[in-house]
Write a structure and sequence with these properties.
The chain is mostly helical and 119 residues long. The protein contains six helices and no strands. The chain folds into two domains: 1-31, no CATH class; 33-103, no CATH class.
Amino acid sequence: MVDAIQHKALRIALRALNCTPGALLEEEAGVLPLGLRRKQQSLNFWARAKSRPGSNPVNKLVGTGTFIKGKILKRKHVALPFGASIRTLVEDAGLDKVHVADLRPSKAPPPPPLDAWTH
C-alpha cells in the first residue's frame, strides 16, 4: 500500500502517465524502492546501536527474538519482531561476524591550570 502511494506521488512529480511502471519511476527519480530503503535504515540503526554498546538502551533489544523468530517462521505471513528482523538482515548481509567500532565520545582533556594563563 505504501509503495502505491509512493508511485502515485512519483507519477505526479515526474508528470508520468498512469501506465508507467513503478520501478521505472523510482529509477528516473533516483529513489530507492521502499523495501530496500527500510532494510538500509534498519542496518544503519543496528550499526549505530552496536557502536555504543554500554550507553544505548536499545542495544538490549536489537538482535533479540531468536526464540520468537523460530516459532514465527513456521507460519507464513507473520511479521517478525523488530529485533528479530534486524538479526535476520544482519545475518543475511554477513555482518554478524563484523566488529563494529565503539564510537562513544572520548573524554575531553582537562583544562590547563589557571596559573598557566597568567604568565
